[in-house]
Every structure is written in C-alpha cells, then in structure tokens.
Design a protein that fits this description.
The complex is a heterodimer of chains A (321) and B (186). Helices cover 43% and strands 10% of the residues of chain A. Chain A is α/β, with parallel strands linked by helices and 321 residues long. By secondary structure, chain B is an all-alpha fold. Chain B is globular. The chains are: A alpha/beta (321), B mainly alpha (186).
Amino acid sequence: MKQYAYYPGCSLERNAAAYDESFRAVAQVLGIELVEIDDWNCCGATEYFSLDLLPAYALVARNLALVPPKLNQVVAPCSACYYNMYKTDKNMAHYPELAQAINEALAAGHLHYEAGRVRSRHALEVVVEDFTPEEIAAHVQKPLRGLRLAAYYGCVTVRPASHDDHEYPARMERLLQTLGATVVDYTLRANCCGGHMTQLDADTAYRMIYYLLSNAARLDVDALVVACPMCQLNLDAYQGQVNAHFNSDFRIPILYFTQMMGLAFGIAPERLGFGQEMVSAERVLEKWRNPPPEAETVERKPRRGKVGLPMPEPLVGVGSR
Amino acid sequence: MMPKETSANSFLEEVMAIPGGERLKSCIQCGTCGGSCPSGEAMDYTPRELFAMILAGMREEVLKSNTFWFCVSCYYCTIRCPQEIPITDIMYRLKRLAIQAGYYTASITGFSETFVGQVETYGRSFELGLATGHYLRHHPLQSIRMSPLMLGMVTRGRMSFTPQRIRGIRQLRAILRRAKELGGAW
C-alpha cells in the first residue's frame, strides 16, 4: 500500500466528479491509499494570482500546511491545483523572503509550512512514475482492444514542471497502449484548451477548442483522453457551443485517463463516472463491451526480399576500412 | 543616466518585483514568446512588443493593453524563452498592476473577482456555477445560446451555484487578511 495525501480540488467535487470517482476506484486497484487533506480550501486556480499575489500563495500554503506530518507527497488530479502547489513550494524554497511572508500570513491561522516538506504530484505522474507498465498491465482484465484514442495533456500537466517532455509528452500514450488501446499521434496534445477564456472572449476560446477538436476528428478517434478537469470542461461541455459557432458536427467523447484505466481494469462504468459527460461515451462503452476479435497473428510477408536495390559493385582497394 | 531612463526604470522595477522577475531585463527581443502564444492573435501587442514597451517605460500604454488579459497561462513562452524569463508570472503581475491602476472593465476582471469573492466566502469555489452567473451578468444576451450547456450540466449533476463552506473559513480569512496587509510589495 502506497500512501499519499490527496487534494481533490473544487472541480472534482461536482463538475469533474467523474475524475474523482474513477481516480479513487483505480487507486484502490493499484494499492494507493489516498488520505484526503482535512478541510482543504480552493487553490485559487489562475484567478487569485491575477488579483493579489501574497494571498494567492497563502491560500495554497494553507493546504500544504494541512498535509499530515507523516506524509510527504500530495497528489492532485487537477493540473491547476497540482501546479499551484508545486509552484508555491518551489518558490518558497527559492525565495526565503517570500517563504517568510507566507508563513507570517499562515501564523494568523496558527499554521506553518516548511518549504520542501511536501512534494506536489499530478495524478498522471503518480500512475506512470510510481508504477511500472508491467505492474499496471498486471491489473488489466478487459483490454481496450479496438479503441482508437488520442491523449490530450493540455498545459500545466506538462509545463513547466513535468518530468516528461514539455512540448511532446508521451507518458499518457504509453499508458493507454499498456491498457491495450490503439493510440494515435495527436500533435496538439500539449496545446492549450483556453482555460477560462470562455469567460473573457468566447470567439478566442471557441477558436482554440475548435482547433483541438478538428485535429482529433481528422484522426478519427473514438475519444480524446484528458488529465485535467478544465480541459474536460472546455472540450466536452463547450463542444456543442463550438459546433454551433463553426457550423461543425463534432461528437468526440472527452474522457479522463482514469476512466480508461478503470475500464481496462474491469471496473463497472457506473463506478467510473460514465454518463456525466455531455458528449455521450456510449459508443466507447459499446466497443469496450464487445471488443473486436483478437487479431490473428499473421505471419507478415516481408515487404521486400533480402536482396536490396541493385547497387554498384563495392570499390576495391579504396580506403579499405 | 538620462531622466527618461529613470522613469522607465521605476516602471520596470515595479513589473520585476516578483520571484525571478529581474530576468526581464535580459530580454533579447527574439519573439519566441509571441510566436508560441496560442491566443496571441487576439492581443493588441505581442509579449515581445510589450516587453520592449516596459523597458521603454511606457507605463500607461502597457497597463491599458489587453495582452496579459488574453494570457491563458499555458507556459509555452515560459519554457521556450531562451533568457528564462518567467513570462507567465509577469503577465499575472501586469494584471495586478493594471487592476491597481484602475485600467480595466468589469467584464474582464469580473470573473476573477467573483471567483476570489467566492473563495473568501466559502473557502472553495464552484467554477462552472460561477461562470454561468458571470455570463448572465455580463453577457445576458449570449446566455440564451448557453442554455443547452447549462441544462445539460444540470441534468448530469455537474452544476451547482454555491460550494460547500469549509470548517476553517475563519482561519482562512485570518490568513488572507494578514497576507493582504503584508502583501503590498508584490
């Protein structure tokens, strides 16, 4: 049993409950014990940092201070929550003046946080770094055979802090392959979904979402797999708005990687939050229930014989190596 | 030093007053930031132009621009900047300075302010309910087009307007109050 402090964050309480349910279900199978931080508060998302810096840091630091002393890692499934905790801890360690100011604020609530005590980690990072592909494969009971998936990371899951490539990550692709899915090369995997742009300028936001959906549609995927509630909300809930805006007809289910893991682990879809998505995932479930027959391993004929193209005779005696 | 530069420096110093902010002085105007920006085409100045303006001390023009409001916090510029300038954090800094200077409209900052208000009242937020409320207030006509979205989210149990209040809300408020008292310099 591996123990982690758990910070679900506000989105996972309601709008992304499917992520919370599926992560908890998958964690149980993997032997992860999630100890929810008692009475945690909102991380401030990207909003608090736009208004007031020190309160924004203090808000995040309260949660870090509330991590039980026996635990030194906190896992957050939401990319914004994860990155805010990571950034607060890192900046407190690098800038003692900032750490001092934050702790002075925390002292008003009789709390203290020592920079470096808690390592903030994204749920995807924990799954792929703390477990080997073999360990994950060992739990696969109903492989995602025949499902064509694209992995979409968005921004702060990979930038600026991830150990994966910041521009062209591959860990979610590898995970989905381990689960038995067919994974396409989705080049926009680390592009931005627009975050809260839908609230500021719908035209700009819809253009960014359209870009992501149209690229996925061209790859003919059964679903786009995400690791962030903000990405899910923008691509799923706003898909209808985008269709109306651009006169398009996208119907791409947007699912969490934990939901796909759960399916592969043989967990019932009802326990994984299926049905909460705006764009129905019924077709995905249908394929999962009735996978295509396992492809026979056909002895492939080599494309060409052992003999290569006719080449000039090797020169003799020149620069013999 | 020429007087012009003195005034330029005071604005520059103000912008740089965040962890790592002093790297802004090393900007080489390569334009990687603007070229990497997914929402750049909606900005009236690219980040590169904006940095040149900051270095030139053009306080009012900079703070009145829409550039940082269109920053979606994707960190592409930050990881690509050859001078390792924390560009995204500087965009946040510019938002705060623009608010302090009063150069904004409620339809832009209203969302952040309502969000923060909710956090200070409850300790938690509910973005989607909040977003809907924000939409109704600031874009009432467009709300009609949003109704299928809202209805869909309600029927799927994904919608709520008020979050749960945390038990330690008084403690949180005390912390935030103290942070605000201390926080002038950032």
